[in-house]
Every structure is written in C-alpha cells, then in structure tokens.
Specification:
397 residues; alpha/beta; 2 domains; nine-stranded mixed beta sheet; six-stranded mixed beta sheet
Length: 397
C-alpha cells in the first residue's frame, strides 16, 4: 500500500513539474519573441527636403499595432539624414552595425536612396524607401536587391501620365521643362517615352539649372503646344507656378509627379496653379475604405491630412507588420522576402503586390488641384489600375 502511495506521489510530482515547465518550454520554443523588432528610419528632419509627416505616419502605424507584432515588441530608431546622401549612409551604417536594426525605412529622397540601398544590399538588410531617387533601370544596373520601393519607381508616374495625356485628354504636341540634374532627366525621359510611344510629339524641351530662381527666360521661351509638362525641383517649383501665371500662359499645365501637392498644409502656403494636373501614387481624396480609415486616424492624431510622403512610410510599416505576422515574428531577410512576394496588401492607395524584383504592381492616380469650398484640394480625376512600376524606361541603353 505504501509503495502504491509513493508511486502516486512521484507521478503527481512529475506532472506538477511538467505543468510548471510548460511556459518555460513554450518560451524556449520561440526564443525570438524575447527580442524586439528594430526598425531604423532615415528621415530628413532638416535640409532642403525636410518633411515632418514622414515620422508622423510611422508613429501612427506603430500606435495602431500597439508597438507589438507576433508577440515581439517593436523599437523605432529614427535619425536625421539632413537631406544629405553622405549623412544618410553614415546614419544607415550606425543603425545596422551599432543599433542592429532588422529593417531600414528611407531615405525619403535623392541619391541617398541609391547609396543606402547599395549598403543595405551589401549587409543583407531589407530597405523600404521612397522611390524618387531610383528608376527601374538604376535598380537593375546597381543590383539593389534589398530595396523595396513601395511608392514605385521614379519612372512609373510620368510614363502613365503621358499615356493619359495622349489617350484621354487628346494632346498631340507638348513642351517640357525640368530641372537639369539626373532625377529631372530620368523623370522627364519617362514622360517623353510614354508620350512618343503613344504617338505624340515633343516639340520643345528646356532644362533649368538646379537652384535657378529666375524662371522668366524659360517661361517666356515656351513654344505653343497642347500642354506644358513640368518637373521643377525644390523651391523653384512654386516660383515657376507664379511666373507661369504672370506671363499668362494659357496652355494646360501638367506635373509628372504631384506628391508634394497632396499635403493640405503645402497647398495653403505654396503658390500652386489651380487646375494643375499631376500624376501621384497617393492623395487623401482616394475613395476606398482603407484610405478613409487611415485619413480619419491621421487627421485626428496630427490635425492635418496625410500626404504622399507620409503615406509611403505608413504603408512601409504596415507591410513589414503584415509579413511578420505571417512569419510568426521571423525577421530573417530570406524568410521576409519569400513571404512579401506572396501577399496582397490592402493599402490606403489601393491593392498592392510585389514583383520578383521587389518593385510593385499598384494603382497610379491622376489628380487635379481644384478649389473646393475655398480650399485647394488634390482631387482624383482618373485611376490607372494595376500599374507595373517598372514601365517607362528603355532598358539597355
């Protein structure tokens, strides 16, 4: 009898120990949950392209997730690139080598996209960035295979806008003006390519030196055509709009990228041509349920509408979180890349999927700056669905 009681006691003790050990066994089965997910954000807080909404959107997306994903805490480390590619690269190195981040977001603009993308590829860290510094051709030539361009490549918007000008607006002849530097040439090249491919003719191209603020000679030299197509960088852009109006040029004005005119605060403080038409990947006026929820939450938190720059960052975070839920918190670049290409993402700009080379298939919008109740708004006048953002570049030349 005593022997039976002893056996029963031993069995009970073993069972109790197993029950006590279960939480520890579960924790050790998934040790990555003890480590935070680290996201490094390269943001131009200062410099000529400084923009405050980029971080605001990141914070909103992380607030919505409760700063956790797949049982792991999320840590955000943001740094100022000062709109300088050298500083952006130095900051990226620190984020990766010292802070040990799992993902990089940014830089927002310029050649920083390329230098950080090359570094991220070298050290095998997924890099989500704004595309204004890279064409699809550049991605291929530089082998930037850790660069995820969730806003699309620099060539896509101009190319599809040019198709719209020819096929929908009936323009047959255009003139172009753009800032004379690499991005300006690549952007306008894509627009010219799309227009000429459609059957249109470009009768004049003018290149404005970077930083030139006296735009009267260029505006006065514009030849007569069906439309004037522009991409004027930085603070010269608003000056061009004012000068265009002063010279009373009557041709329709189209901008190949209108991202900066999607911010209501920008529209209030910057001279903008009412009626200007532009390509954009985002406007707060996009009519879909995801965007309506996002715009409401953003405006309640920050007191103004989100713009294209902010929304690119918001989508970056949402994609990272969606993928990590599928991988159960596994942040390894190989697993992340495998899963990101399989998913369909519902975003404020509409549905989005990734191609094998990490560019996107997504909507591009044609917007027009219109006055509604006395305020200028980026109204969507046409949606081009399912655009392949690799389009718009002649490869191999």
């Amino acid at each position: 009898m005593k022997k039976k009681r002893l056996v029963t006691l031993v069995r009970s003790s073993i069972l109790a120990l197993i029950i006590l050990a279960l939480p520890l066994m579960a924790a050790s089965a998934n040790p990555i949950q003890d480590k935070p997910v680290k996201i490094g954000a390269l943001i131009p807080f200062t410099g000529f392209l400084s923009h405050p909404t980029f971080k605001r959107a990141i914070v909103l997306a992380l607030d919505e997730a409760g700063w956790k994903v797949a049982g792991r805490q999320i840590v955000l480390i943001d740094v100022d690139t000062a709109t300088n590619p050298d500083k952006a690269l130095d900051k990226a190195r620190k984020l990766v080598e010292v802070d040990k981040v799992d993902f990089l977001i940014g830089p927002l603009h310029g050649t920083g996209t390329i230098v950080v993308g090359e570094y991220a590829t070298k050290v095998n860290v997924p890099n989500f960035t704004y595309a204004m510094g890279a064409t699809y051709k550049t991605l291929v030539e530089r082998g930037l295979d850790k660069l995820y361009l969730t806003s699309g490549t620099i060539n896509a918007g101009p190319y599809y806008l040019a198709k719209y000008m020819y096929n929908e607006l009936g323009y047959r002849k255009i003139v172009t003006l753009a800032t004379d530097f690499q991005a300006g040439h690549e952007i306008m090249e894509a627009a010219v390519y799309g227009f000429e491919e459609s059957g249109g003719k470009v009768i004049q191209q003018q290149w404005i030196p970077f930083g030139e603020m006296d735009l009267a000679p260029y505006v006065s030299a514009i030849k007569k055509a069906d439309a004037c197509v522009i991409w004027i960088a930085g603070s010269a852009g608003p000056v061009f709009n004012v000068t265009y109006k002063q010279f009373d040029v009557t041709m329709p004005l189209l901008r190949v990228d209108g991202g900066e005119y999607t911010w209501d605060q920008q529209l209030k403080k910057t001279p903008v041509m009412e009626g200007l038409i532009a390509a954009t990947y985002y406007s707060w006026a996009i009519d879909n349920p995801v965007n309506k929820r996002y715009v409401k939450a953003y405006k309640e938190k920050w007191g103004h509408f989100p713009d294209a720059h902010a929304t690119a960052a918001y989508i970056d975070i949402k994609i990272i979180l969606d993928v990590l839920r599928e991988t159960e918190g596994d942040t390894s670049p190989e697993k992340f890349d495998e899963v990101v290409k399989k998913l369909r993402f519902d975003t404020p700009r509409g549905p989005m999927t990734f191609t094998e080379d990490r560019t996107i298939i997504a909507n591009i919008y044609v917007m027009q700056v219109q006055k509604v109740n006395g305020e200028l708004v980026p109204k969507i006048i046409h949606t081009i669905e399912g655009c392949d953002t690799r389009k718009g570049i002649k490869m191999g030349r």
